[in-house]
């Protein structure tokens, strides 16, 4: 069996907007979600900025008692899933729940809960640890809680491949539907790791921007003056369905998922291969899987983290793969606006890619003022452009050498 797979619902909780319409409006306008961290005191930190989700109240989406038993990353996941289910107009009482599943990604899981409970252990002793500590903290609980919320009894899995987690989850969900093992899957990812220990850890690696004087200018992929990534948080959720199932229930269709590629550099825990060959092969495999000529691809949502090595080597991967058809390709890094959502990045960026296809608008890479000569492609600097997008790639690259690419195309 080789089912066609389509996107019928979108849900997003992001630093630049909650809900697909608010998210897309901010993306096209080039709005930055980066500002000073408000969730804890950053006095002793080299980095004092991040892209926090503002105005999020879990009780708008989740029963108050249940929300208290969820880490923030799970709250984001369930909330974004509810938005996506509503957008897809799925009545969970009218579908085959045993063919309705969840394949979800998170790079870190419930780190906020871990930190809070660790403080309790130190200051108040072991008897004060919450009985919900473990089920709130573990990385698979977003997928589990989504399934409980929507009675999804089909395949249920969690993908943990660092910053490639969501894109791997979407690719895996695509394959499950393609081979006929489910009718509908909730997929994407969630992350809520703007916490003291995570900020300290990334700071110790010298991975984060310290452009504290200009928060909204700090995330600057492909710019010569970039000095590291900016942490973000949130959740991006897609409803994927077999085309047959979507048509039978009269669903609206945003775009089609057509190809998926996944590779590993097998090289270094944090630094990509210098020739970009791991990322190149992931894109190559996605294109081969979709059975499309690479010259037809005209948009890439890049991983584009605003770190020196990622931007340089991802650019090289794109150049080495596309060669003579490079002139046809527009590239943007929406992390310039959302910050880096780590394990949730691929979900949010898949949504950006899908909406670019649906609306015929390519979102910009903001803060691209002094373009790095080693990054010499068309990154759609600062202003969105109107252009029909027929075939697009979304790239995610993660610590551990993980590379994942999903190919989306206009539905016809």
TrEMBL record:
It is an enzyme of class 2 (transferase). It holds the Pfam family ketoacyl-synt. Residues 2-410 form the Ketosynthase family 3 (KS3) domain. One of its GO terms (molecular function) is 3-oxoacyl-[acyl-carrier-protein] synthase activity. The keyword Lipid metabolism applies. PROSITE patterns: KS3_1, KS3_2. One of its GO terms (biological process) is fatty acid biosynthetic process. One of its GO terms (cellular component) is cytosol. Pathway: Lipid metabolism; fatty acid biosynthesis. Its EC number is 2.3.1.179. The active site is at 163 (for beta-ketoacyl synthase activity). InterPro entries: 3-oxoacyl-ACP_synth-2, Beta-ketoacyl_synthase, Ketoacyl_synth_AS, Ketoacyl_synth_C, Ketoacyl_synth_N, PKS_Beta-ketoAc_synthase_dom, Thiolase-like. Belongs to the thiolase-like superfamily. Beta-ketoacyl-ACP synthases family. This is 3-oxoacyl-[acyl-carrier-protein] synthase 2. The lineage of its organism: Bacteria, Bacillati, Bacillota, Tissierellia, Tissierellales.
